Amino acid sequence: MKLHKAARWALVTGAAAVLAAGVLAAPAQASPAGPQAAPAGPQGAPAAPAATAAAKPGLATSDAMAAPDAALSARQNAMMPAAQALSAQARNASSDISGVKIDPATGVIDLYRTNPAQSLGIAGLPAGVKLAVHQSKFTRTAMNQAASQVMRDAQALGQQKVGVTSVGPTVDGSGIAVTVLASDANQLADATSVLRKQYGSIIGTVRSVSRQPSQNDLYFAGWRFNDFAPWYGGDRIASSVGGCSTGFAANYNGGPVMLTASHCGGTGTAFYNGPTTGGGFNLMGSSVYSDTATDVGAISVSSYSLYVNVGAAENSTQLYVGSWASPVVGEYLCQSGSYTGEVCALQVVDTGQYNCLSWFLWWCTSSQGPLADVINYYGSASYSAGHGDSGGPVYLRSGSSGTAVGLVHGVLTGNAASAYPAYTPDTLWCPAPEGWSQRCSSGFSFAHMPGF
Fold first, then answer.
1. Average pLDDT for residues 25-38, to the nearest whole number?
2. What angle do CA 243, 247, 250 make, to 5 degrees?
């Protein structure tokens, strides 16, 4: 991933949803073995050219994971259909569900509800999967509405010396978590008092954080550096801004695009793939979409593939990704940026987070989200992603295929950074084609897939 001056990384994926006004859409699912027609663009827009998911000559598909990751994957695969169905219910405005969390180690799905006696309307659970229902205070809808209101009020709160850096729902429904700028316990107590007086008991945990300094980013064999149309996800891309990674295939206004992070280059930025083994760079295309509010960007390309590069950065194989999904707290995901390569066992610790993007004194003048956070299952000494992986794919892996979940964005959001302070440094040693260097973190935030 690439760390932007605003301390962000970025990541994006593609599949079957529509972004914002409905102009950025994921490609339709197709069999990995044959070509597919790209889905039509918005009404009145020209139809997209046919795109193929077929493998290029010499492609080595990936059908195996490392043993520890495979064990985690096998345990959670049985849980995901029910967990995703419950998460979908939670997004319904009338739902009483506060949050869903899975524990692959025990096979338990924890469900938090304000009305536990109400029928859920889901099919029976597979063998070995248990559902534990817990009483909660607030629904997901209520918490999302409150978090949005706090972010809209950020400038007014700044006038009261409350600098909101991050706000989002808690999975257990205890209220929204808020992280504020505070240099000592007294400032934190004052900020907490202001928030609870203004918004009531829905303000749950309030933590403090210091402003993080800006940092610069870094900087050749294998597909990631020697690709060509139809393009793969997880490729290295270079622009005037620096080095980043591609995410997933999608369609924008009826044309094929590769997703990446918007902070990797605004609309009109030219992106190149490389450096190739011949020492040059191949033009991929130019950005036709850039939304700083979500950190999602799109590069116009002649054609795309539904494969992403996985494995080591310079010795990658390819994984078929044919669908999109929302992240679920507790699940384990993988990321495959072009600098660090594939890293799995990344546990989701929150979703739906919004971070302050720019400041004027104590006032947050703009925010960014929705974002989710992951931390490495193996601890704070294990890297998860780093500079240059921005825009790279974040996905749920299941054997020889995967589901797009998000795009690498950057350092942990404020809520996650204050909850997991040991996971925030981006100075861990980690690999890259350029050599090992101190540029990675054990946790990172990622942008939700567009429309999810």
1. 46
2. 130
Q: Is residue 245 part of a domain?
A: yes
Contacts of 81 by beta carbon, 8 Å cutoff, 6+ apart: none
SS3 call for 422: helix
Q: Is 229 contained in some domain?
A: yes
Q: What pLDDT is recorded for position 362? A: 86
Identify whether 253 is part of a domain. Answer: yes
Q: Which SS3 state, helix, strand or coil, does residue 82 take?
A: helix
CB 42 within 8 A of CB 253: yes
pLDDT tens per residue across span 336-361: 999 999 999 999 999 999 999 888 88
Domain count, the chain: 1
Task: For residue 450, say if its preceding peptide bond is cis, omega within 30 degrees of 0.
Answer: no
Q: Which residues pair with 147 in a beta bridge?
A: none
Helix (H) or strand (E) run with residue 12 in it: none
- Tally Cβ neighbours within 10 Å of residue 82: 21
Task: Tell me the residue type at 168.
Answer: G
191-225 burial: b if 16+ Cβ within 10 Å, else e: bbebbbeebeebbbebbbbeeeeeeebebbebbbb
Q: Quote the pTM value.
A: 0.77
Give Cβ neighbours of residue 118 (< 8 Å, ≥ 6 apart). 96
pLDDT digits (tens, 9 = 90+) for 295-339: 999 999 999 999 999 999 988 999 999 999 999 999 999 999 999
CA distances from 35 to 49, 183, 251, 380 (A): 12, 57, 16, 42
Among the residue ranges 192-201, 289-298, 429-438, the one predicted with the least confidence is 429-438
How far apart CA 158 and CA 121 sit, in angstroms, is 44
Mention every residue, 6+ apart, whose C-beta is less than 8 A from residue 58: none
Does the residue 254 lie in any domain? yes
From 64-73, 355-364, 404-413, the region with the lowest mean pLDDT: 64-73
Length of the chain: 452
How many Å apart are CA 184 and CA 165, to the nearest integer? 16
Structural domain for 319, as ranges: 18-40+48-67+216-448
Per-residue model confidence (pLDDT) at position 450:
85
Q: Give the number of C-alpha atoms closer than 13 A to the C-alpha of residue 155, restricted to the C-beta side.
A: 6
Peptide linkage before 275 cis (omega within 30 of 0): yes
CATH of the domain at 387: 2.40.10.10
